[in-house]
From TrEMBL:
This is YjbQ family protein. Belongs to the UPF0047 family. It comes from Rhodothermus marinus. InterPro entries: UPF0047_YjbQ-like, YjbQ-like_sf. It comes from the Bacteria. Signal peptide: none annotated. It holds the Pfam family YjbQ.
Length: 143
């Protein structure tokens, strides 16, 4: 059994930025030597999320707009009353979407659908430098 972990860095442009992580995660899987197993991607922080989606221009707009309808940025939230930092909605949106995603690994590659990408979703109100922890666990290819 192999357990391999790497940290990736990602700069975001602020609220609603959706970035493709697929190739970077696939590269970590390749470096791990795991042929069959799981890859887990986790964003460190409480105002960003990781998930899967078809990353095309329409959905890059639709997802943040949907989250803003579900958890509007300019509502009154108790977090905002306490901290006055303008990002209560970002915490709530990130919680709904989730901080991590786990994908099977087969033949040394993440198993994703043709139109499915691993993505980072920035929910915070300002650009951020995000740290992503990628953990690959599984068995190596048989030599």
């Amino acid at each position: 059994m192999i357990v391999h972990q790497e940290t990736l860095q990602c700069s975001t442009t602020g609220h609603g930025d959706v970035q493709d992580l697929t190739q970077a995660v696939a590269a970590v899987v390749a470096r791990s030597g795991v042929a069959r197993g799981l890859v887990h991607v986790h964003v460190v922080g409480s105002t960003a999320a990781v998930g899967t989606i078809e990353l095309e221009p329409g959905l890059q707009r639709d997802l943040p707009e949907l989250m803003d309808r579900l958890v509007p940025p300019h509502e009154t939230y108790y977090h905002e009353l306490t901290w006055h930092d303008g990002n209560a909605h970002a915490h709530l949106q990130a919680t709904l979407l989730g901080a991590s995603a786990t994908v099977p690994v087969r033949d040394g590659q993440p198993v994703l659908g043709t139109w499915q990408q691993l993505v980072l979703v920035e929910c915070d109100v300002r650009p951020r430098q995000r740290e992503l922890v990628v953990t690959v666990q599984g068995v190596p290819s048989q030599s």
